[in-house]
Structures are given as C-alpha cells and as structure tokens.
Amino acid sequence: MAAKENQGLQAIVIVLTILLLLTGVGLLLVNNARKTAVARAASAEKASSDAQGVAAKAQNEANMYKLWIGFPEEAALETLEPQYKADQERFGKNMEEQSRKYRTMLDNIDAERQTLVKNEADAKAQVKQLSEQLAAVEAEKERQIKEHLDALNKAKAEFAAEQAKFAEDRAATLAEKEKIAASMQKLQEDHAKEVADLNAQKTALQNTIAQLERRVSILREGVPNPDQFAQPADGVIRWVDQRDGTVWINLGSADGLRPQVTFSVIDSDSADAEAAKQKGTIEVVRVEDAHMAEAKITSDDPKNPLMAGDRIYSQVWDRGRQVNFGVAGFIDLDKDGRSDLQKLKDIIAASNGKVVAAPDETGKLPEGAELQVDTRFLILGKFPEGARPQDIALRESWQALSEQAQSLGIETIPLDEFIKLMGWQLENRSVAMGAGSRSEDFPPEPQDATALPRRTEPTGVFKKRLPGVSY
Questions:
Q1: Which of 81, 270, 302, 469 has the highest CB neighbour number within 10 Å of its CB?
Q2: What is the pLDDT of residues 311-329, one digit of tens each?
C-alpha cells in the first residue's frame, strides 16, 4: 500500500518537474521574443529618425536647388515641370535630348557667348584694319587725282603748243607742196621729152639689131652645128718651159685647185676634151694666184710637144666643186695581190674628188653607201672569181653598184684606163716571189704613147649628159 503511494507521489513530482521545465522554457522564449521586439522597435525608430533626417536634408537640398535655378522653395514639381520644358525648348533646342540639362545648357550658352565675344573682337579688329586701309586708299586716291590733274594740265599745255607748232608746220608743208608740185610738173615734162628720145633710140637700135641678126644668120649658114654633148676643157696652158719641163695654167685658188691634181693635155682646137687625143699629162705642183698655177710635165710626145694655148682636162677635178666616184671589184694598182683601195681613194682625193660608194675590207658595201646622180664614173677593178666569202661579197657589191650605175646613167671605166686618164704612174712595182710566181707577172712595158682604150658603159642605150647637167 505504501509502495503504491510512493509511486504516485513520484509521478506527480515528475509531472511537476516537467511542467516547471516547460514553464521556464516558455518564459525564456517569451523573454527572448520581447528583447527581439524591443531591438526591432529601437532599430525601426532609429531608421525612421535617419529617414526623417535624410528626407529633411533632401528637402533642404531640393529647396536650395530651386533657389539656385531661380524658383521659390515652396514651388511644387507640377509647377516646375512646365517651366523646365519651356527652358529646354528655348535654350536646348539645338542640343541632343540626353544633353538638355541646365548645367549643359549653361555651358553651351557660355561657349556661344565666348564665341560671340571673340567674333566681335575679330570683327572690331577687321573694321579697324579696313578703316586704316580705306584711309590709305583715300590718301592714294587723292595723290593720284592730284597727279592726273597735274598731268592733264601739262598735256593741255603741250597740246596747245603742238597745235601751234602743227599750224606752223602745216603752213610750211603747204608751201613745200606747192614747190614740189611745180618741180614735179617740170620733171614730168622733162620725162616725156626723154621718153620720146629713148623711143627714137630704141627704134634705131631695133633696126640695127635686125640688120645684125640677118648678118649672123648669113654667117651661120657656113658654120657646122656644134656637138651639144661635147665635153669642154677645164683650162688652158698659158706658158711652157720645155727646158725645165714646167707649164703654167690659167687655174688657181679661186677655182678650188690644189697641188697634186693631174690634167690631160689636148690640142687647142679640140672641141670635145673627152674625145680628143691626149698629147700628154701634167701635175700641179704649186698654186700661185687666184687663176695661175705651176705644173710639171709628167708625160709628153717630143714629136708633138705641149704648147701655150693647149687645153687641159681632168676626169676627176671639176672647177669649184668636188667630183664623186664609185668603186667596184678588187683594186690592185701595183699587181702585188693586195688591195690598193685606200691608195686609189688618196689619188682621187688629191684631185679634189671623193669616193661615195666602195666595198669595205670584207667586200660588202657599208650601210648607206650608194651612187648618186652626180657621180662621174663607176671605176671597175678586177672582177672577183674566187670562192672565198670576201670574193662572194665583192661580186655582190659589184652587181649592186653596176645596177645603180645603169639606173642612174653613170659611165663605167676600167681601173687601168682611169689611172691613165689621171696621169698617175707607178713609181715601184713589186711581185711576190715564190713557187706561185708566173712569167705573166712581168709583162713588157710599152715605150711610146698609145691611144686610150674605149671606156666601157653599162648595158643598154646610154646618152652623154649635157655639160650643164654633168660637168
């Protein structure tokens, strides 16, 4: 029984203990909640106080901004917004939308103001400069006007003087004119008389001419017609010194003559120097005057000696001008088998001649070398018959020059005949000795003069040129 009571008591004690614990926990929780609420209330009160302070500060700043931009503090936003938009439209019309702020608009207005101030200063400086220039121009204008007025007054005075002088000169001119008219009248009368006398003389001369023409026609009936193609002589021998073998001719420096020029000598009565028989040859040794030169006799015939009055003629030399020649074939003057083309050119040059077309060392014609219409002769050397490249080239140049000579009507002449016409003689003759030497290399030389061989001419019909056209 007692044990059951103790157990009940223990249960009550346990329940009470639990209740006590629960009460303590509840009180603890309530206390904590109170503290939290108090803290929150304090925080809220502080935040409210701070918010009120910030709001008051913001309101003060807003009121200050209103005063800065010229609005009263009590002005509300609804009344400020229309004015702000009006200011934007007025002062920020040319600005971007995001830049339409009072500060930006003030900066823009200030920049425009400074620009206007600068422009005003520049304009004032320009006005000052222009004013100074205008003053200078006005001064220059006044100076020029004064100068022109002075010049005008001077010109008027000179004009008046010139008018007076002109009137005086005109009176003198009129008087001279009357004098000249009287003189002209007299001259016309004298001229008419002289014309009448001249007409009478003219009639008398015409009658005399008619009589002389009749006499000439009568005399011509007994005179043979001259050959219009006859080659005239170049000059005449004036004096001969047979003892010294010297002659003097009527050619000199004025005719373009120089030493070493050779001439053929023909009889004085020969009309055609080219066709006449040669009496001998002479070589000029000294030019003494404009129309006088000394020459030595290089060949003559004692049976028909050179005499004063004999005529002289050269195929190479021409009075007052240079004669042109062409050369074809292989040139060997001394028969030694070597080319003597340069020696031939020197002989021709000594007589004031010139070789205008000739093969070079290779046998070819140089570029641009060709016969001309005034070429006197095409001199023909030995026709090349070998097979060497030089011989082939010489044959080709021979053919080309022969065709040119035929087309231009140029005479051809063998080398030996040309040398004889020149009166040139070999001083020494050499033949290469050796196994290839032949008896033909030593032909006998003629002792007396022989007639000149006939010149060869190009194929086809050839007529000699007139002396006025050729030589």
A1: 270
A2: 998 877 777 677 889 999 8
